[in-house]
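Weekly modeling sync, notes
Attendees: AB, CL, MP (scribe)

Item 1: holo prediction request
CL wants a bound-state model with zinc ion before deciding which constructs to order. AB pointed out that an apo prediction alone won't tell us much about the pocket. Agreed to run with the ligand included and paste results into these notes for async review.

Input as submitted:
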Amino acid sequence: MSTRWKHRRRTTILATAVAAGVVLTALPASAAPGGPGAGDPYYPEDGNSGYGVSEYDVRVNYDPARPRHLEGDTTVRAVATQDLDRFHLDLEGFQVTAVTVDGTPARAVSREGAHELVVTPARPLRKNASFAVRVRYSGEPVGEGWHTLADGGANVTGEPHAATAWYPANDHPSDKATFRLTATVPNGWTVVGNGRPGATTKDRGTTTFRWYEDRPMATFLSTIAIDKFTVRASKLSDGTPVINAYSPGSRIDPEAEAQLPEVIDFLASKFGPYPFSSAGAIVITGDDGEGPPALETQSRPTYHGGFFDISMVHENTHQWFGNSVSVSDWRNGCLAECFAQYAVQLWDEEKNGSDLDNFFYRGMLEESTADPEFWTTKLYDPGKGRELDGGLYSKGSMMLHALRRTVGDDAFFGTLKRWQREHRYGNGSWPQFEALTEKVSGKDLTGFFDAWVDGTTVPQKKYLYPGSLGSLDPAPGQAGATAEAPTTSDGA
Ligand SMILES: [Zn+2]
């Protein structure tokens, strides 16, 4: 669920002068500063402007015996989208000890606000220039995405932003990049990240783990998990490697584990090919209780305590809806949560023969028709702080079922697959999804979307009971027939 920064810091201007003796040169007339935000209507300071990241190379050192102390050495490879005389990265806390741009010490480095690191390179960057900024830093992770485990281990989960807690980033889902993690911990500890593992090496009491996510990833989906994990490897049906990591004391359920390939195959049949080159799970115990109950960390969702088919379906649906196709900004949470929640119903329909019209849709409708509160969430642009509102899960999954019945299965699933194809490894917005649905179905859905997505009251009857659902008009005395509660997931 939505998390907020808890450690708001006073504005500080620190650490200047990395490059003594550099002569100030006149900037080209066109050079301008990069901005401190990516333009998100809810989180204007998240992310930055003026460049796009192509890859993060994050190197960290963490000793659980010296909890909450991290040493970082991160290189961000990026391309300037405008002439830049300086630019911002997002990093909360830490002492920044050195910053170079393309190997040359930055002329100036300063901190602004809670999480802005402002870098002035020795020479301004030209539009379209590739550059690499290397930041060395150490100290206590204080951003909200960082969670310390009871045994000294740690993990990172947070939405809508978490990367800022452990490496300098353009921390907004609109800027996606491949991700390389190199993490050194004392022998006996294991580090799990996103993507595929690289070589593990040992050196005088420490072990270095390497992970590489080779598909673009939104920063909040990047993770590091440090614990004395039990690691179990297997494969999806097409041979894609699966790595499941379990904290000590978490529930290892071989049956649930064995079901992952089936879940992925099922989701692929609905949405198109699985988008990533690895899969699996990170199961955490002994956490601080402040993270989301589960998060769709890319290619390897994070769960608390254990997982089962429902939570796997929800978090793995996000691998398509949210991860491969990420929100363009936080007004578009429905593009992730409405689908992840509805997919649980699709699974129930396929595996258990559940009658979604009666037991899911009609049941929820009857429960909620007289509850004005249920309908108050706008599914697009629900408002700052409500970007992951519970209404996206409940009303949102009902909306998708009503949409499916309105346009028919061919157009509905055809739209989902085309959405995935057209936006694969990129971003999308809800208005784009509405437009695509109209295009694929050939229907004018303005009234439907106005009622279900933008409306804050029960939709008019014609949008509640479209076409084939006409026969579901509740008949007197039948309300009790649908008492079975719809299956829900407490995942995020
Ligand atoms: Zn979710």
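Recorded for review: Residues 326-482 form a domain with the Neutral Protease; domain 2 fold (CATH 1.10.390.10).
Action items: CL to compare against the apo run; MP to circulate these notes.
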